[in-house]
Design a protein that fits this description.
The protein is mainly β. Helix content is about 0%, strand content about 50%. It is globular.
Length: about 450
């Protein structure tokens, strides 16, 4: 809801789940500009705790109450942003564990959330000089000063961002330099939690924290030093490549980016939340993947050759860790393709040594040696680049190979302790399995 006339500076949002995994909440926003100073304040009140969830990527956070304030002021080409947060007041008094010492000599202590753990602050400086743009920002966030995911795009499509979590100090800086139609953009992140994770294997009663039983966890705010380099070639900056709708709006005959990200991760994390095979029961993993340095190379190519023909290709490779407690490091490769020619649309992907399509695949570190998919459809009008409701007819083919790290792999069966026949994926001397599917479909959209 938006206010009018004397209430035009106010906006109100409320609902049972304003974003995926959110608790039922109400948010009130107030914005005002005075001279060259821009002010925004948001009050957020969770009304209840969300119950069951359908995805481990949308586990509700503990019920919270928070107030955030933001000030912005520009001085010519320079800008300054100041932000403050008071959050997590209902968590005051909640107990949590901390660990001290080294591996093999850990000591577990118990503490509780205090009023000072609800506060946090951020500061950001920017310089916009046309072909050269720079920013630097830093934050100090109390243990439960959780602000939420950071969606701000600063100058370009960097992947290294403030996680928006509480329990951390961080510093980020980067610049974007435009040479003709090519943008060169290095970026840096340093991040460290105030209270680090509790590793698996600590002496009882110690255990890794999890967001179901504890007021905070170390996950996205994991200690790290990271850097990235991003190259972007976009000859039509009027349709910016990093707009949320660039797949549809980009009109370049050829535009691409190429990025490299390296993360030094010297510690483990607290436990993630998984979902049992019944699809409803949630639980905490016994630990998390170990300390590990990770790298990734990614690229996106957009080509709108003409009004009738265009394609978008996304490429990636790199090391990755599971969300759950499995310590196996994977090196994955992948390509996603979308192509439109008049009324025809092709969606396809090829993935090597990667997780499957569902969140539990990454939770349990379930991978497939090879995954191939192609979907060809036609509609009554030119298809959209987004997967919006439409009337179309199509055919889809999917093929996967399976090994001992894949679900449903059963080279041979053995008797378990209960005398039942179960798959033995670790049997020696068997080739990879495979599975395939061909489906046809007709979708009918009768809306406007």
């Amino acid at each position: 809801m938006e206010g009018k006339k004397s209430l035009s500076d106010f906006k109100l949002a409320f609902g049972p789940q304003l974003w995926w995994g959110a608790n039922p909440a109400v948010l009130l926003k107030y914005s005002k500009s005075l001279a060259k100073l821009n002010f925004t304040g948001i009050f957020h009140e969770d009304l209840a705790q969300l119950g069951l969830t359908e995805s481990s990527f949308a586990i509700p956070q503990p019920k919270t109450r928070r107030l955030t304030l933001h000030l912005n002021r520009e001085f010519g080409k320079f800008g300054v942003d100041l932000g403050g947060i008071w959050a997590g007041q209902p968590l005051q008094g909640r107990e949590f564990q901390v660990v001290r010492g080294e591996e093999g000599n850990y000591t577990i202590y118990q503490d509780e959330i205090k009023s000072q753990d609800n506060f946090g602050g951020k500061i950001k400086f920017t310089y916009e000089g046309g072909r050269f743009n720079w920013y630097a920002q830093s934050a100090a966030m109390g243990l439960v000063a959780q602000g939420g995911a950071e969606q701000t795009l600063t100058f370009t499509g960097w992947k290294l961002k403030d996680s928006g979590s509480g329990n951390q100090y961080n510093f980020l800086s980067g610049f974007a330099w435009l040479i003709g139609d090519l943008q060169i953009a290095p970026n840096f992140l340093w991040q460290k939690p105030l209270e680090g994770p509790i590793p698996a294997g600590v002496p009882a009663p110690g255990r890794p924290r999890n967001i179901l039983d504890d007021p905070f966890v170390v996950r996205g705010n994991r200690e790290q030093i990271a850097g990235e380099m991003l190259f972007t070639y976009d000859p039509t900056p009027g349709t910016w490549m990093y707009n949320w709708d660039s797949d549809r709006s980009e009109d370049a005959g050829f535009a691409f980016n190429l990025g490299f990200v390296y993360r030094h991760l010297p510690t483990t994390q607290d436990a993630a939340i998984g979902i049992l095979p019944d699809g409803r029961t949630i639980f905490a993993f016994p630990g998390a993947a170990p300390a590990q340095d990770l790298w990734e190379i990614h690229s996106k190519i957009i080509s709108k050759v003409n009004h009738d023909f265009g394609y978008i290709v996304s490429l990636y490779t790199g090391d990755a860790q599971a969300n759950g407690s499995d310590d196996r490091l994977i090196r994955r490769y992948g390509m996603d393709l979308r192509m439109i020619y008049k009324e025809l649309k092709l969606i396809s992907f090829a993935r090597v040594n990667d997780w499957g399509p569902y969140d539990y695949h990454r939770d349990y570190n379930l991978t497939f040696p090879l995954q191939l998919m192609a979907d060809l459809s036609t509609s009554l009008r030119k298809p959209d680049w987004f997967d919006l409701p439409d009337t179309n007819i199509g055919i889809r083919a999917t093929y996967r190979t399976l090994d001992k790290y894949s679900p449903r792999y059963s080279p041979i069966q053995k008797l378990d302790e209960g005398g039942e026949l179960v798959p033995d994926p670790d049997a020696i001397g068997f080739d990879n399995g495979n599975e395939w599917e061909i489906r046809t479909y007709v979708r009918i959209n009768i809306g406007k």
